[in-house]
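Researcher: I need the complex structure. Ligand is thiamine diphosphate. Inputs:
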Amino acid sequence: MSLQPIYDIAEICARKKVSHAVLCPGSRCAPLTIAFSRHDKIKTRTFSDERSAGFIALGIAQQSGNPVVMVCTSGSAAYNFAPSVAEAFFAQTPLLIFTADRPAEWIAQHDGQTIHQENLYGKHVKKSYQLPQTYEHTDEQWAVNRIVNEAINLAMQEPKGPVHINAPFREPFYPDPKEKITFSKELRIVDEVINPFTLTAEQTELLKREWSKYNKILVVAGQHDYDNNLLSSLQTFTQTQPVAVVGDIISNINAVESVVRHTDVFLSHAPDDVKKSLRPDLLITFGKSVISKSLKLFLRKYSPKAHWHIQPAGVVADPFQSITKVIHAKPAAFFDALQTSSTSKVFEKQKQTNYQKLWEAEEHRAERSLKDFFPKEAFGELELVHEVVRQLPPLCNLHLANSMSVRYANLVGLTDPKKNINVFSNRGTSGIDGCTSTAVGHSLINELPNFLITGDLAFFYDRNAFWHNYTLPNLRIVLLNNHGGIIFKMIDGPGILPETDEYFVTQQHLNAKKLCEEFDFDHLKLDNKRKIKNTLKDFFDFDGRTKILELETGIDQNKTIFDSLKQKIKKSYER
Ligand SMILES: Cc1ncc(C[n+]2csc(CCOP(=O)(O)OP(=O)(O)O)c2C)c(N)n1
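Model: Output:
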């Protein structure tokens, strides 16, 4: 049986701008492995651990903006893609997942390496396709072509996401070593004309009219890709409209000068009367989740009268339980359209400005509290993150692992709007399982400096991120090794239970020294505060080496520092 329709999958991908494939070893997937690896327009890389491979593909897809092919063999290999597939689904990252399978007759027949693979990823893919298992009939050939075209288009439709293609193969599936594999020239490609997601003049007029009824207008950005168009429209919007704009570190709107970055600092301790005064009439949101729990709780409790969510397409989430209008447009298009919608009444405009100033005042309070909090005598994780974030070079990628790393970084915030730092974090499912692999995926396909800040459980969990044959000269990792999950001491709930240390914090005793030896990385150990200047100098020196800067500390020490920052913020409201 000719495998030509399967080989041509690589050609369809290449013509539809899919240029990276992550391949995992196995036999059943041989036709796909051969197709992709022999195609000169597709860059293939191989990884043995499918869980890590999936996150590497996720990182490549985020970095390139196009779907990335993932290929694995049948059986549990396919299940090991699942964590990255779920993350991609909620992070809205396009992936094209091929799982090789036995023909249908052989499922559950005690044949090796076989599981139920149809719809394997359930609701965590936009769609799951089943390829035909023979390709003799022209209808079968047409079906393979149609499915692959459709799957790539679907992955790129808003909201983007992963699409699964299960591919059953009957033996023999290895070509003769002398067989020359070619790709068909005459192939059907299905292009899509993508909606620009802008607003019509009529829609804009209606929104402007409605907008002018509100005096307290708050914009909140959730996690969002770094987007130059959005940044320039938001910058102009904030200069023409007296509106407060709030953004976490992962919303990537740090370049907007007036953005309120520190809600996590002040909303957790602001007294009720301050919070009441910050309550919006009209809340406008875009993007995905916010990190700050305080912001989430504040918006749920101090509900706006109206809440507009801007999202190009698809069903929207309602995390603050208040949505009253969904605007299907690109956020940049919305802010461009609303730039001129100022109320003509001077008195009303003054009210809007007063409300914006309240947010500005709280932001300044947070900045002041943080400013004189450092440097501290008792050195810990928070201060190191503060120092590293301040010293990041312009035009770099910052990857934040789940748990305290992303929270610390959000607390200290990116403060220089001119540095163009692109922030990534696996906040789709907030797993600790693929943070390093995702950062590795990014590092593999760009030459920018990539910095990852991570805790020790996340780091050691995902050590197979390094288990491959590719070098990572542009990757720098800050490892906050407190020998366990410190977050369980920080959050309300498990903090003081008898089970906390053993079953929540889960102390572990590794450090990164041996791992650095194994993978030939530089290990920079920060064991003394006096060494910080020189250690960071070495860390930020891009000399072609992968470097891990490790700070080993105790949990209690970091908790004390964290608590004292909270106290300081609380006190700032007592004066
Ligand atoms: C795959 C997965 N398993 C479990 C969790 C639950 N979890 C959240 S944070 C955390 C501890 C992380 O510890 P570490 O990476 O050392 O960071 P720290 O808390 O010390 O900042 C765990 C186990 C998770 N988020 N993802």
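Model: Summary of the prediction. Residues 402-405, 430-433, 455-458, 482, 485-487 surround thiamine diphosphate (CB under 6 Å).
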